[in-house]
Write a structure and sequence with these properties.
The protein is largely without helices or strands and 233 residues long. 4% of the residues lie in helices and 0% in strands.
Length: 233
């Protein structure tokens, strides 16, 4: 169903919330109030949702390639299996959002608030998460290869089995994070805090992580930057 901005906003104002599979390619919904809207499997390629309020919305399996969601309120949104390649989510609020199996390759999430979000098995390769808040986030098995996580907060995050190969973690806060069986080969951890983090059986070969900081973390069976597996903390 092809719709334009006026069609959507008019129907939403009358109480309609169901817009499954709607074709809204390139629409501008700047600062629109669209709480709890249902846009599952919708075509939202290149749509402008900057500053919009979409809290509680269902955008599962939606196509948001190249969409602008900067500064949007996406708290508790369902984006399960949605595609946001190259999307801009800078400064967006995504607290407690469901982002499982989402594709965010190359997306901009710098300074976004993603606390308590579910990114299980998500693809965030080469995404920009510089300065983002990712405390208590579930990133189990997520692809974060080549991702920019510089100065991001990942306190108490679960990154077990995550792919962080070549990731930029300069100045990141990974205190008490779970990184069991994660791959951090060639990652840059210069100035990062891993106090109390669990790196059991993780692979840090080729990573930039100064030896003096190794005792801060749990490194049972970990392959450290010198390529020698550690036996204990």
């Amino acid at each position: 169903m092809v719709m334009n901005t006026n069609d959507l906003l008019t129907q939403y104002a009358t109480g309609e919330r169901q817009f499954q599979k709607a074709d809204l390619n390139g629409v501008s919904l700047y600062r629109a109030e669209l709480k709890a809207i249902v846009l599952t499997e919708a075509n939202l390629i290149g749509a402008n949702f900057s500053g919009a309020s979409l809290s509680g919305a269902d955008l599962s399996q939606a196509n948001l390639i190249g969409a602008n969601l900067s500064g949007a309120d996406l708290r508790t949104v369902n984006l399960n299996s949605a595609t946001l390649i190259g999307a801009n989510l800078g400064g967006a609020k995504l607290g407690a959002a469901n982002l499982a199996k989402i594709t965010l390759n190359g997306a901009n999430l710098s300074a976004a608030n993603l606390s308590e979000a579910n990114f299980k098995a998500a693809s965030l390769a080469r995404a920009n998460l510089a300065g983002a808040v990712l405390s208590h986030v579930n990133l189990q098995g997520a692809d974060l290869s080549g991702t920019n996580l510089s100065y991001a907060s990942l306190v108490d995050a679960d990154l077990s089995r995550a792919n962080l190969e070549g990731a930029n973690l300069v100045g990141a806060n990974l205190s008490n994070a779970i990184l069991q069986n994660a791959s951090l080969t060639n990652a840059n951890l210069r100035g990062a805090s891993l106090q109390g983090s669990d790196l059991s059986f993780a692979n840090l070969s080729g990573a930039n992580w100064p030896e003096e900081h190794w005792p801060e973390a749990i490194v049972n069976g970990t392959t450290l930057p010198n390529s020698k597996p550690a036996s204990s903390r």
